[in-house]
UniProtKB/TrEMBL annotation:
The chain holds residues 99 to 592 of 594 of the full protein. The lineage of its organism: Eukaryota, Fungi, Dikarya, Ascomycota, Pezizomycotina. Its cofactor is FAD; (6R)-5,10-methylene-5,6,7,8-tetrahydrofolate. Binds 1 FAD per subunit. This is Photolyase/cryptochrome alpha/beta domain-containing protein. FAD binds at residues 241, 253-257, 293, 296-303, 394-396. Residues 1-138 form the Photolyase/cryptochrome alpha/beta domain.
Amino acid sequence: DAVVMWFKMDLRTTDNRALWEASEKAREAGVPLICIYVVSPQDFEAHLTAPVRVDFTMRTLRILKEDLAALDIPLYVETVEKRKEIPDRIVEFMNEWGASHLFANMEYEVDELRREAKMVKMFADHGLAMEVFHDTCVVSPGALTTGSGKQYAVYTPWYRSWVAHVHANPELLDTFDPPSKNPPDARDKVAALFDRDIPDVPENKRLSEEDAKRFHALWPAGEHEAVSRLDRFCEEKIGQYNERRNFPAQAATSSISAHLAAGTLSARTAIRTARDKNKTKKLDAGNEGIKTWISEVAWRDFYKHVLVNWPYICMNKPFKPEYSNIEWSYNASHFTAWCEGRTGFPMVDAAMRQIRSIGYMHNRCRMVVASFLAKDLLIDWRMGERFFMEHLIDGDFASNNGGWGFSASVGVDPQPYFRIFNPLLQSEKFDPSGDYIRKWIPELTNVTGKAIHDPYGRGAAAQAKKAGYPEPIVDHKESRNRALSAYKVGIGRD
Ligand code: FAD
């Protein structure tokens, strides 16, 4: 007999609701808790998961296995090629170990929700029980509705309601303890599970040796690292977050997104830790930096709620159906220039080189490059959304889709379509010294003064040309007008 915990994107022992529930069940029944994680190369492919994110997951699994082993709990990791075979494999696994109860946290993407709904029924048919919990959001999807009972499609009123809900239910921020140690005989009973190694990264997602070295140094994995990153940020930087968060040359944000995406950190713990640094228990009062940071973490909840309420956004459709008629350009050389960071717009290029190099991009730059792709180049935003997923260590469907929808003005609570970022002004405002640009574009390291934002227009043309930095591929004024008319025609406002 045993109780099984199925890990997914919740790779931590502390503050993990399903793991805690599973542990309680096992303790009450006096049986061992055993854990499983299924690696599905096909799932990675279908979700466009970036190799750097897969690698981060596999490294995390090794740490999780050790942490659980210290509690005499085994973590068994198996590769199942075809995703549709996962439910059967889990049933088989449960039968092998005589387990009748499976615990898991819920994932809200449409394929996963469908799979889990099917599994609950299938389990019942097999005489097994499956319990699935809300865990990834602080406030579960479905809990907040407008006064007239509708789902919120605008962030600010949603956020007010989110804050009020947490204030009324402060236990939502309580932590779940790590699982209890397995009974003394568990080690013998399930010994075979302890012996199995974590499989290698599937071939379709393997990093080159050089990339692996760089990424491992940049992004240490596991929940201990996640908590120490969070603690350091709350200790040293959160107080100035509101003033400094928009400047990509400053390391002023928490850089915990990869951990929230892999589930090595819970959103509850993130918000609780920040709140406990404040002099008030209120989430929307006190220190400006703390308040602002909490409201940013809440965006993550917001986009997950949106995903649950309007699941068609998982199917390549814009949140606003009337925005389906915009005629996008599919100019391949423009798209390649954008992907490679060779558009001739230094702020855009620096950001694209950052994502390619470290699997991460600063939030301000994500907005700038997304707006540039969708508006200046008028390229289908879904191509950019896809490119981000294929490169980000923190790639998360809901936040990525939400960010692209916002920037391309096709999403929930978006930037109005006529608001078009001027990449030059964004650069002057948010990278005034040009340090961010110089860091990522070696061709421009020696360009000084304002020319860094626009070398060809500001007197550093010869220098940029000599160093091989490209000229701008479009004229912002012209492309702005083109975008305005394409959006107007597309949405029928012409
Ligand atoms: P901090 O500023 O320290 O914020 C803390 C946490 O709050 C983040 O880790 C994140 O979980 C959450 N958060 C902050 N801003 C947002 C936001 N706008 N939307 C949703 N959550 C937010 N974030 C992802 O986690 N995965 C993605 O795939 C992703 N794609 C994006 C694509 C675009 C086009 C845009 C504009 C934004 C995207 N974001 C995404 C949101 C945001 O850029 C990152 O969460 C943030 O840059 C991560 O850095 P940080 O952890 O230092 O953030």
